[in-house]
Amino acid sequence: MNQLPLKTSIQFKDILLPASLGMVLPTVWLIFLELANENIFQPWMYLPLALIPISGAAGAVFFYMMGFHWFPQGVKKLIAIIFSCILYFFILWITSVFVFNYTGHWH
Known about the structure:
The chain has a domain at 51-107. Helix content is 74%, strand content 0%. It has helices spanning 12-36, 46-70, 75-103. The chain has three helices and no strands. By secondary structure, it is mostly helical.
């Protein structure tokens, strides 16, 4: 059976793509929600626009590390990807709760 070569070193460019993709999903979602709102771009919206995409980037980097570096093959990779997806959306959700509660807009 052919073994896949394991990556041992992590470079910045390897982390940049997952981080940017992890930032795009919540950023697009937040901008859509803010454009659909009649009170567009109020000052309280800057904090969610800054912190939620940063947490999305952190979650995506964790997803990348779990699925492609720490557990690169086999059943462990499948379990790591499923766990990382759940954790990514949990991180986005809990950051949204904290940020919107801090700004007073969590109802």
